[in-house]
Amino acid sequence: MKNVISEVVGNGFCIGCGVCASQCPTGGLAMEWNVAGEFNPVSADRCLAGCLLCLSVCPFAPEAINETQIAEGLFARVPGIRHRKETGFLLSTHVGYSPTRKECASGGLATWLLEKLLVSRQVDAVVCPGPTPDPNRLFSYRVVKTAEDLRQCRGSAYYPVELSGVISFILEHPGRYAVTGLPCFIKGLRLASIKNPVLNERIAFTVGLVCGQLKSKAYSHYLASLAGVEGPLASVHFRGKDPGQPASNYFFSCENTSGKSGRLFWNQGVSQAWLSRWFTPQACLFCDDVFAETADIVFMDAWLPEFVKNPAGTSLVLSRNKRLTEILEEAGVSAEIDLKKIPVEKVIQSQAGVLKAKRKDLAIRLRKREEDGLPSPKKRVSASYSFPGDYLARIEQAILSRMAERSRELVTAHGIESLDAGKVQASMTSDLARLRRLQQLRGILGIPGRILRKFGFRRNA
Q1: 415 falls within a domain
Q2: What value, to the nearest 5°, has the Cα angle with vertex 21 and ends 378 and 70?
Q3: 243 located within any domain
């Protein structure tokens, strides 16, 4: 029977958002861990013939409507709205930070705005990920109703979470909710809201986060092992700030259930696992939404030369919602937060690496899937190779895809809590060496272009 299990999970494209499980009319889907440390829906064999509701709300279903189509219905009629192919719709773009940014992952503006919505009673609750005391599930979505509880959820969670329980809560409890999420999670919520008018009425605001990739449960255990901490984990913190380091060199810290702790900076091994796509769900490699195009507002790090050296962190904000823009700008005028307008071109520049991965590199990955006769989600990016410019990029994508798959195989073979960082790195040695040589070659080949640009020559000149 055609459903999300056969069409999405079976092809390896489930992101584990849990929206399908919340909408199944028979309660026949439940979210559980798979062997790779990712959430997937599992079936209780109560599927209704011809229902297909689970597929209609899945962000990675083969024929799901895309982000542009969803956003058209949400934002196209907003006065003053603009559209760019990189960002989707936009009303305003700002840069700034809140007074509590040192306790937050970035500049703290997302937490500040959510707290403002709660305190001013423009929403009754905020739905967001937060830490738990459960070693088997270190983070989960929570429904928070006080500013104090919201502050406990500050920080990034590069860890699987799923929405099924909190969506059920929203449907059972009248009120106005602000929901935070990654681009694919917000897309799933929007698809469910199209089908479910109660959900559509109760979700007052959606707050998106720019996302390069999600990570499996194994990612935390790998970093812990690299930091010298083995066994079940009691807590992890992904974005610690050191006053002596730039914002980009944040640190991972953890503690196991026996009380042993450790920490690891970005340049001490975190970057290798992140940039090489280890422990990344396959669905992440087939996503083309950088700026959470279906969210009312989206927050991101200000990865720009003029901000990145500040260890406290700085936020960029792209809004598509008039009321949320007003709240931010009023607070900026009153100096409640530090906020300035910034050109959208700078916002786009700040996410250049993610845009490359989700547009140009995605085109290569889609073309390779076509050549191999494998199914892919329907994307707005066309499957293509450019010749000769993409030849080295094709090799790079093949290496990265191979490492991503090998990392999942290692987890499946050895188990999550038994993951040994040394063995993982040893298994990746040859591919890492190939990647380094490829990057060196690219650097050499790029020298003439850099010289020309230095003297004012441009490709479109």
Answers
A1: no
A2: 40
A3: no
